[in-house]
User: What shape does this take?
Amino acid sequence: MSSKSSSSPLNSVTKKQIMGITGLLLCGFVLTHMLGNFLLFVSPDAFNKYSYTLTSNPLIYLAELILGLIFLSHIFMAVKLVLENKRARPVEYHSRTKSGRGSTLASSTMPISGAITLLFLVLHIINLKFGTHYDTEVGGIIMRDMYRTTVEYFQDPLHVLFYIVCVATLGVHVSHGFWSAFQSLGLNHPKYMPKIKFASFAFGIIVAVGFSSFPIFCYLQGVK
Amino acid sequence: MSGNSAHNMSLKLKIWRQKNSKDEGKMVDYTLDGVSPDMSFLEMMDTLNTKLVKEQGDSIAFDHDCREGICGMCSMMINGQAHGPEALTTTCQLHMRKFKNGDTIVIEPWRAKAFPVVKDLMVNRGAFDEIMAAGGYVNVNTGNAVDANAILIGQENAELAMDAAACIGCGACVASCKNASAMLFVSAKISQLALLPQGQVEAESRAIAMVEKMDELGFGNCTNEAECEAQCPKGIKLENIARMNRAVTKGLFSGR
Amino acid sequence: MSPLNDKIKKLDGKVPAGPIGERWSTHKFNLKIVNAANKRKYSVIIVGTGLAGGSAAASLAELGYNVTTFCIQDSPRRAHSIAAQGGINAAKNYTNDGDSVYRLFYDTVKGGDYRARESNVHRLAEVANNIIDQCVAQGVPFAREYGGTLSNRSFGGAQVSRTFYARGQTGQQLLLGAYSAMMKEVHNGKIKSYTRREMVELVIVDGKARGVIMRNLSTGAFEKHTADAVLLATGGYGNVYFLSTNAKASNASAAFRAYKKGAYFGNPCFTQIHPTCIPVSGDHQSKLTLMSESLRNDGRVWVPKVKGDKRNPTEIPEAERDYYLERIYPSFGNLVPRDVASRNAKLVCDEGRGVSQTGMAVYLDFADAIKRDGEDKIRAKYGNLFDMYERITDQNPYKTPMMIYPAIHYTMGGLWVDYNLMSNIPGLFVLGEANFSDHGANRLGASALMQGLADGYFVIPYTIGDYFATNKFDKIDLAHPEFEKSLTDSKEKYQKLLAINGKKTVDEFHRALGKIMWDHVGMARNEKGLISAISTIQELKKEFWSNVKVTGTDVDVNTELEKAGRVADFLELGELMALDALERKESCGGHFREESQTPENEAMRNDEEFCHVAAWEYQGLDQKPLRHIEELKFEFVKLTQRSYK
Assistant: This one.
């Protein structure tokens, strides 16, 4: 035990911690993204100005790069863990029942909810970020009319439905992921853990409901 | 002496049979009558084995020893749960009164790459010994000790250490984990020693050494589902895994 | 007497002389030492990895010897020491209630009813304190007081609080301590640990124990192992009775194989019956579960005053209950030693006052303690035991009294060893419950853990060195004829068992043996019963070898075959126990001869004729073994009739 035998640079604890840290950062991104989107409710101009401010700043490329790296490491680590976990049990049980005292729907579906979220993310970027380009003028500046792109996209009820299903899945994903990150980082305290778990659950609901409000709003708003 | 033979049950059993580690193995159906509700699960298995032997068959191999829930030898997956449906109960202390006449019971061995099947329901848990040998101890030789009361330990920490030390090393955590992870077992030992001044000295290097050995042996990763905690017959808490994670992190930063 | 008489030896226990408190230190000084650098040239085989074997393995490996360990379970951590609940004694006098090494020594000699060596017992009491220190250093989480100091409680048979404990799992925690020390040495390369192995033969070369034949229970293969010394730490033989508190794999084969190779078997009739076990529930019963005797600190034992009272216990008024231990033994009350508590339970049940459906149980009632201390305090003390009781019996002991009955628990008898823990075969050391032990005719509560660890941590490391330093060892080839012969014999035995293919299962024979033993060589014994037991066991043994049914083969795991091998030995050992009980025409401790009792039904010793250890020497199959003796001298604790009134 005297010397550290570093067979692999990443042990199972570290791998989980990378998942946890990247996950928490992504939670932060999701939250700010949602808060920004609330400007949809204020006015088309407010939303467009917000979008313009973000995209016109040269630092956006760096920010996007970092965000992309966080996503990639979260995804890469997830795939690695899933493969390793599969290998750890080469023969499955004939019958397996959950005790009802441990695993939850959220905790047992993390790879699936994660995969759905990834798919959503890709489609989301294609449909909106690289969606139809309109221009508009706010306060004398010509900028992209992101508001119109968004509202138009959500005129199709199928798009609305798909979006809601996906953000609900994301809500489920973060409701386990959020507290789980604290556990992986060793921040489990008998006094605070129930609160963290509650916060995690609440965060999941907020994400699901908050993001669902946008497509519904857009759909009801209609194209003017 | 079986007072209430009127309540005796008939059961359908689906049991994993595998001759040895090289055999493929398969599920085999049995029926068993005259099962008294007062029997323990293992006594039900004894009864089945007596029947098999009388019929010239090969008895079903399963691990068991103390039959009072402390040695950690018994290890059956019963109806898809480690040690069966009762919380905080080992297979040997599970009683047939928890089942109903006519029930079908599926019995399988622990399943994990690191726990290969020896025969039928018996698996090799030597991996746990290897993890322990990687660091699950305080480096103190016989004769090195100071007077026992020279080391003061607050009651709260002593109790927490005892909670962790209650682990019987049965492997139910690995069996019940969907990833076949051994984190609960490993963290229980790391926690016990990390909570005591005697174990502090090596707390971080111990945690890293044991975790790395666990990884090397092919156990899965933890996804914080807590099914291990739920199916642990001794109620070992998930907090221990967090404590282990903390020790590993500290160790990485201090370069141990 | 017979011409055999001149073959009977007076054995020398090699006990040092001098003041009792100095004997062990003087002896240690006189023991030869193996030079530190030479220790690596010696090898030791240790069979059994419980408290005695595990602690010995760790300590010897730390010293530099090359150790090979074998255990029958799938990990050394599962040895049956793990099941000890109550605690471990040491005379630390942390509670300031007047304890001392001498008092622990005195209590143990007296508790053992004067059938143990004074010198051994004093050594045990001396090193007990070191054991606690060692275990704490290893990280054993003993119970603590608020101020952080160790907590003590009083335990069956002791008037001082000298028992250290870790909840109701003291054995488990001490074993995990020894096991972790062992694993440390596995890591350091000084211990090679083999699991799922059973010893099937001892190999003696040129008069010295030089190896063992092991059977690999996973593959069925026989393996030869050699070393310079062999340590047996294989536990007791309580499973002769089929129903006992021992683990299912606990067996006597290793010790009995050694006996058949010439090692003397000491006091085989000294068995301990534990008073607080969960009663038998039916014919399916495979083992008995012990409830820690610490329960007797707060529980009150009683039966109805009237025979056949079938009322619900809570409906029986105070005036109609007989708290018989408190009545007969006012000063010790419910805390009388185990043998006394057990025998009295049997007496009241024999009178027809027993409770439960079988009439073979007495109440252990916590109603008063709960009233006095509150349910929470009782839960804190005994919660896990109460839960276990409820799990097994489906009854809530907080609401209705527990039912208990005595069961075979521990065997004081075992292979005879001298003060150095060496048997009469040079190089064969026997530790822990497997030796005939320091507990005399009755073991006090919380003393077994103490003895196992004392032998392993603090005795054998010194005495084995003397054996190595004073003997020469030739290197032994595993092809040596002695190894070949032992191997062939073992293989043949198993082949023979498989070939019989009779009608009765191994368990049926084992249960039949157990019933004979319990009825006639159990809590009370008499000449007629013992003689009939011997002849019925002989018949059963004959039937076994012609009618046992063992299915399967000798390759891979075959649990039926394993059991058959053990039961074959139990049958012979059972007979030896009955013979020893027959020849010891006195009552002492756990050995109660009905012919030898006081008017108040207490055990009456016969110090004139039986103040000795009986050490039996094997004479061949179906031959009566020879009964050698080792005289016991009591220079410090005066021989008196035990009284707990």
